[in-house]
Amino acid sequence: MICEQCGERPATVIVKQNQQGHLTEKHLCHVCAAENHNISFSFDQDPMAIHNLLANWFPKQQAAVSPIRKEVPICTSCGFTFQKFLNLGKFGCAECYSTFSPQLNEILKRVQNGNTEHTGKIPASYGTTLKIKKEIEELRKQMQAAIQDENFEEAARLRDQVKVLNERLEGGGGVGN
Known about the structure:
With 177 residues, the chain is mainly alpha-helical. It folds into 3 domains: 44 residues, no CATH class; 58 residues, no CATH class; 47 residues. 46% of the residues lie in helices and 8% in strands. Strands 1-2 form a two-stranded antiparallel sheet. Strand 1 and strand 2 form a beta hairpin. Helix 2 packs across helix 3 and helix 6 runs antiparallel to helix 7.
């Protein structure tokens, strides 16, 4: 695909913009993308640097006609400002996380598609298998405790439950008591 702006070089950058609910897409070459005033990205830098990513999401704002002085939060422990975090891409200390938590929530929402809470790292396809394995492990612990207490009927019942879950885990046999 050829650059939509210059029509000379191959398009290597896709710029998507959401303007009043309408998504526009431009295919640009690296030269035209660098010249575009909406993009503040230097192509000679590391493209995955977090401070570049954050700086593009929070562009430097221009002064208004009558500027209103806003109180800028500063970390009491290390003296970092939020702008310094955006420039460097990392915090100065652990206290920065609580100092800048309102701003971090906004960043996390943008980066994580609106999610600000961690819901786990296990893919959904492995969730049921892991759940069964943990249940088997817990039943085996209960079975050992029942054997220690000489409650052999309970231990046998737990053993049968482990057997059923193992069959379910291996995909063989039906599930039933």
